[in-house]
Amino acid sequence: MDLKNIIENAVLKSSKNKKFKICDLKIDDKNFGNVFFLLELNEKIQIKFIKDRGDQWCELGNFHEWFPIENVFKKIKIDEEIKTTDFIFLITRTLDLVDKNFEKILLEIKEFTFEK
What we know:
Blueprint: H1 3-14, E1 20-28, E2 34-41, E3 45-52, E4 55-61, E5 66-68, H2 69-75, H3 87-100, H4 102-111
Antiparallel strand pairs: 1-2, 2-3, 3-4, 4-5
Helix pairs in contact: 1-3
């Protein structure tokens, strides 16, 4: 199975309520296996996952402004930092936490109270 299918399956498994919609998925095997992956959640927030030259991170946004996922989780009192080199685990664990805390995240996003 190729990386695109693995990512799509990870999203399906993580989306218990099928709220996540894949908007964009780019995999560049010629440039260090870089990945750009954008999800939309209930047409209210977006989550992007980036893997660039081995570094990987996730940001959450409201279609206008982006915030590091760690800052979002801290703000809503999720005391878990996802430290991993496994890109698929980063995706699945982040989506699980976002799914479980969607309403809290939505309230904070509306107030633009995260640190950038």
